[in-house]
Structures are given as C-alpha cells and as structure tokens.
Amino acid sequence: MIEISEHYWENLIGILGMFTLLALAVERALYQIFDSKLWRRLEKYLEEQVGGDYLDLKPWISVIVSLVIAFQLKVDVIATILRKNEPEILSMVLTGFFLAGGSTGIYKFLKRARKLKDTTA
Fold it and tell me: How far is residue 75's CA from residue 94's CA, in Å, rounded to a whole number?
C-alpha cells in the first residue's frame, strides 16, 4: 500500500505537468518535420508505391522518438508516481507511448479521468 504524505498531490501535479510539457514539446518538434514539403513529398511517393493509406509512418516515428527520449532521459512517470527509486523498462515503455500521444493523448486521458471522477463522486 502506498503511504500518501501531505506533499504527494503537489509532487503528482508537478510530475504530470512536466510530463505534459515534454509530450507537447515532442509533438511540436515532430510537427515541424511532418508539416514540411519534404515530408509531404515522401508521403506522396510512398502512397504511389504502396497504394492507399496503408503506410502511415507518423505514429511509428512518434513512438520511436518518444521511446528514445524516455530511455535516454530515464523518464518513468509511473515509477515516479509510485515512488519507486529505479525506473523500470516496462513503465518507461508505457511512458514513451504516452509521450507519443502528444496533446491528443493528454486530452483524451484527462477526459476519461474526468468521466471516471464524475461516476465515483
């Protein structure tokens, strides 16, 4: 059982705030690439070669970049919230997937959290 101190919620809000800023930074950085003429030309080329929208590289690139960031910076939101001293591989992978979600992922997570809060209240 996790023992919750008086500073737990302050730390949790700080951790989630930093995570949100990191997710938004990753999203904005990748947007600069995905909005470029070179990227559009690459997508057009791949669409002509493969046909259709079967090969969408954006989510895969976003996940790979986010996983690299999570592992290089040892960002493990789950372990931090649960007050574990060392980051764990599985929770760093989950953190990387959350980072890859960007602002859309954050919005959907907060929307679901609000619905859950409303049903328990």
Answer: 10
Residues 93, 67 contacting (CB under 8 angstroms): yes
Domain boundaries, the chain: 8-120
Q: In the structure, what pLDDT confidence band is assigned to residue 30 with cuts at 50, 70 and 90? A: very high
One-letter amino acid at 41 equals R
Q: Any idea what the Cα angle at residue 108 is, between residues 113 and 65, rounded to 5°?
A: 120
Measured CA to CA, the distance from residue 116 to residue 7 in angstroms comes to 24
Tens digits of residue pLDDT in 42-82: 888 888 887 766 678 888 899 999 999 999 988 888 888 77
Dihedral of alpha carbons 69, 92, 36, 18, sign: negative
